[in-house]
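Input record (one chain):
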Amino acid sequence: MDKLQKGAVATSYLVYGTDRGLREAVRKAVLEASFGSVEPGWDYVSIEGEDVWPRLREAAAMPPWTAPVRFVAATVPDLEPSPQKWAEALAAVPPTSRVMLLVESDRPAGLETLVKRLAAVPASMVVDCTPLKPGEAEQWAAMAAARLGRRLGSSAARLLVHRAGTNAGVLQSEVAKLAMYAGRRSTITVDDVVAVSVPSAAESVFSLMDAIGTADTSRALAVLHQVLAQGENPLGLLALLVRHVRQLWLARASAGPAALADELHVPRFVAEKLLAQARRLDYGDLAALWRRLADADEAIKTGRVPGAVALEMVVLGLEIP
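The corresponding structure, as predicted from the sequence alone:
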């Protein structure tokens, strides 16, 4: 992404990762760099589905119709038929074309082989669109605000990522809403984020863990059902719970809220909430919860127990069959 932000342009692009928002941002950036204000029209080709590799080669070999270059974007779930064939296709792109291979996987089989092959192709670029880490997401949000002529300070960015998550597309949408809310003000503040951004499932996990920590099973089940009713995937919620338990484990050994906030890259008030929760759950409690979460993960992935039921059993402290 750094090269794209600096205006670098290549002939062939390998773009991989499951963050759809990042992939779309890359595609738009390259389109703009390739065509400028010129409408691509017939010279923009999108390929997906069956037999992508031969269709991409054929489309890339054709000269542009009316635009300066021909742009071919091919979307695939993995690197079948082989990394070598994709390397050959990306290395053979004529100077009148731009080819972008979008791989919807964070670590597709053969990725390292393909990246090494492309390193020898001067006009190629590899772009990592795997899910952003919290610090990267904060930088992404700040850059999205800058593109709209606004400044998103570090505290506001950290709070936004905590509330909205690290998905680039979601952050882009949230920043756009914040810019509108800020009106003529050039800076988006923490108060703006509190007023506008929609809390994600990650915030609901705090309420869920509060209820678990105080043995309030009725409230814990109510929060769980509310989050699931909002469309959260059970495995996604399970992953958030695992992350939260890990954070609580680190909180018990932390020197204080400032140190914990820096270690976890979360706002200070979040670190304070984690420390408060950690005081109610000792290492034995956390270890038992960790085991229940691991059992739930296996039960859901093997199909033994439906996701919602497995999570209910975690909350209730029941053994998962």
